[in-house]
Amino acid sequence: MFFEKRFVIVFLVLFSSFQGMSQGVVSFPELNVLYKAYENVLVLGAGKKTKSLVLESKELSISKSNDSCYVVRVNTTSRTAQITIRNKWTHKIIGTWQFRIMNLPSAVLYWGIYPPDSEVSLDQPALRSDYGKDIFWANSEIEISSYEINSPLFETSFRVSKGMITPEVIAALESAKQLNKGNPVDFYVVAQVKGKDRILRRTEAHFMY
Fold it and tell me: Is 126 among the domain residues?
């Protein structure tokens, strides 16, 4: 399944009551993760009342992007960080949330729908990379800048820009399988991928055809 290229991690805080701005605070602890080298997005589900709130943290840089959204950047080497929500008029604390600090997970490289170490088919249009199971958001697809594919049965390796599975790659795999008398062919893909922190990294995977 392919996802949109643009996404945000959303930490949603719902305020079910604003009687005195101190009741009905609900958080989602399963999303209490902030990633290093990444613009985390925190959303306050408080409607117009958001204008009365201030977000504070000693370990984090927090900037407001619109009425209910904030961009949170990690400034600490600590494994945890705390965000306090305060009423800027009364200075009363509405709630305090603890977050885990983590690196973005390593990218996982797929042959279309097939995960690493799978026996693949040649009907897939492109490679895909995302954060695998180590994610806390739905849209996690990573941009593939280029890749190299090789096999002990290839005469030469192939370098391809972007992530498309080209006719040349397909022909090379078909030829390798014929050379291997129809037995499965091991091949390896090494890709340059750009994660959600926009840093270019190397990732690789083994497949069979």
Answer: yes
Instruction: Report the length, in residues, of the chain.
Output: 209
**Other Cβ atoms closer than 10 A to 155:** 9
- CA neighbor of 49 nearest in space, from 9, 26, 85, 21: 21
Say what the pTM is. 0.69
- d(C-alpha 101, C-alpha 106), whole Å: 15
For the record, the structure tokens of 160 come out as: 């391809």
Query: Would you give the DSSP letter of residue 106?
Result: P
Per the structure block, which two tokens stand in for 94? 């509405």
Q: What is the pLDDT of residues 33-88, one digit of tens each?
A: 888 888 888 887 655 666 788 899 999 999 988 777 888 999 999 999 999 988 98
Where are the extended beta strands (E) located within the chain? Answer: 10-15, 25-26, 33-35, 40-45, 53-56, 60-64, 69-74, 80-87, 93-102, 108-110, 128-130, 143-150, 158-161, 186-194, 200-208
Q: Is residue 76 in some structural domain?
A: yes
Domain span including residue 183: 108-208
